[in-house]
Amino acid sequence: MGKGKRLQEYGKPSGSPGVGEPLFLAVGRLLRSHGLHGEMLMEVLTDFPERLGPENTFYIGEQHLPIKILSRRGHQNGFLVAFEGIENPEMTVSLRNQYLYVSADDRPPLPEGEYYHHQLLGLKVVSDQGQEMGQLAGILETGANDVYIVRSEAKAEILLPNISSVVLKIDLEKGEMHVHLIPGLLPE
Questions:
Q1: Domains within the chain, CATH numbers bracketed
Q2: Residue 119: in which H helix or E strand, if any?
Q3: Dihedral sign for Cα atoms in the order 81, 86, 88, 93
Q4: DSSP string, 29-85
Q5: Beta-carbon neighbour count of residue 82 at 10 Å?
Q6: What torsion do the CA atoms of 128, 134, 135, 137 make, to the nearest 10 degrees?
Q7: Which residues fall within 8 angstroms of residue 145, CB to CB, at 6 or more apart?
Q8: Nearest-CA neighbor of 79 among 18, 20, 34?
Q9: Under 8 Å CB-to-CB from 7, ≥6 apart: which residues?
Q10: Model pTM score
């Protein structure tokens, strides 16, 4: 079934107004200053790090202030980035631990059958028997496949592996995910 793409790390702010798709998606987190010319070490939070360059528009912090990346280069497990107007370490202090965002409208298209995690969160989960299971509340990334966390008011949390024998259909227009419940998935 469809793979999920992480354009935003879970538990991190997305700029979402609450319902529907977020306006902004977190793609990086600025960690600390590096060197004497205002570069910063950035943790990458996107599956598309090649898009973190000068050709794209970015926003910083909870106020989503526009900022332009002048350059980026690989460093350890992230990037060293330089921003327009940030010329020394003292100017980076207010940027430390801030998130770097892109507009949700600027996200790259995915192949058919693949979805961004934020598109899946909130979907109503329905069994192939027509039983409403709850709402997709979270996604765990594992080595083999994602695991969907389904929550309902009446039932305990249900963990569903994102495998073709369980996830049958995702209908974003209807806001539904259709699943087949194999033995052992429901709590006793």
A1: 4-106 (2.40.30.60), 121-179 (2.30.30.240)
A2: helix 117-120
A3: negative
A4: EEEEEETTTTEEEEEE--S-GGG-STTS-EEETTTTEEE-EEEEEEETTEEEEEETT
A5: 20
A6: -120
A7: 161, 162, 163
A8: 34
A9: 25, 26, 27, 46, 47, 48, 102, 107, 116, 117, 118
A10: 0.59
Tell how many helices (H) and how many strands (E) occur in the chain. 2, 15
Q: Do the beta carbons of residue 100 and residue 58 sit within 8 Å?
A: yes
Q: What are phi and psi of 91, to 5 degrees?
A: -80, -10
Type of residue numbered 135: Q
Each of the 188 residues of the chain gets a pLDDT tens digit; together they read: 444 444 443 334 443 344 454 578 888 999 988 888 888 899 988 877 887 888 888 999 888 899 999 988 888 888 889 998 888 888 888 889 999 998 877 777 788 888 888 889 899 999 999 889 899 999 888 878 889 999 987 767 888 999 999 999 999 889 999 999 888 777 66
Alpha carbon distance 85, 114 (integer Å)? 38
Cβ-based neighbour number of residue 117 at 10 Å: 20
